[in-house]
Specification:
Elements lengths: L1 H18 L4 H39 L2 E8 L9 E4 L4 E8 L5 H4 L4 E3 L5 H8 L16 E4 L8 E7 L4 E6 L10 E6 L1
Parallel strand pairs: 1-3, 2-8
Antiparallel strand pairs: 3-6, 4-5, 4-7, 7-8
Helix pairs in contact: 1-2
Bound molecules: copper (II) ion.
Length: 188
């Protein structure tokens, strides 16, 4: 390809010289510069052609993202008691506190727990960890992922890889809420 362009350049210069006349040398130089800048433009265009392919690949990867919105209200309830996702997907979960009560009265979080965790026991220990958003340090190993603790009107979005196939518990770990605010997170 380069050889062809070089040949074309030489031919062009040759043509100008053959045409003769005053200022032909300057013109041929100008033409040569044009060829060079064209070549650069061509290379840039080639580089751009490769970009959309990468974008397409990214779009395919992004199609595995599952967006979930779960709400918590002033009546100490989640609006979902079951969430199903496919194994291998990326979960983008938003917790919305749709109530009006403050975070100290009616705080909500969404905590996904590892299999085999006793949710009532977790809830009891969580109640003592106010300064840590009710995720006690001693129980951190049992948490797959959690949102921040929210008051009325607030929301938080977290993104995580779905754990391996199976059924998991999710809860709100605010004191006293686990009894009502809980559900199953199913990876299939
Ligand atoms: Cu709650």
């Amino acid at each position: 390809m380069k050889l062809l362009k070089l040949t074309l350049s030489i031919l062009t210069i040759g043509l100008f010289i053959a045409c003769g006349g005053t200022g032909s040398k300057e013109e041929s130089n100008a033409e040569e510069e044009t060829m060079t800048s064209r070549e650069i433009m061509r290379q840039e265009a080639d580089a751009k052609e490769n970009e959309p392919k990468e974008t397409t690949k990214n779009e395919n990867e992004e199609s595995d993202v599952v967006e979930i919105t779960i709400e918590g209200n002033d009546q100490m309830q989640f609006n979902l008691d079951e969430i199903k996702v496919k194994a291998g997907s990326t979960v983008k979960l938003t917790l919305k506190h749709v109530g009006e009560m403050s975070v100290t009265q009616m705080g909500h979080n969404w905590v996904l727990l590892k299999q085999g965790t006793d949710i009532m026991e977790f809830g009891q220990k969580a109640a003592t960890a106010k300064e840590r958003g009710y995720i006690p340090e001693s129980e951190e190993g049992k948490v797959i992922v959690s949102t921040s603790l929210l008051g009325g009107g607030e929301e938080d979005t977290i993104e995580f890889e779905a754990p391996k196939k199976g059924t998991y518990d999710f809860i709100c770990s605010f004191p006293g809420h686990v009894a009502l605010m809980k559900g199953k997170f199913i990876v299939e």
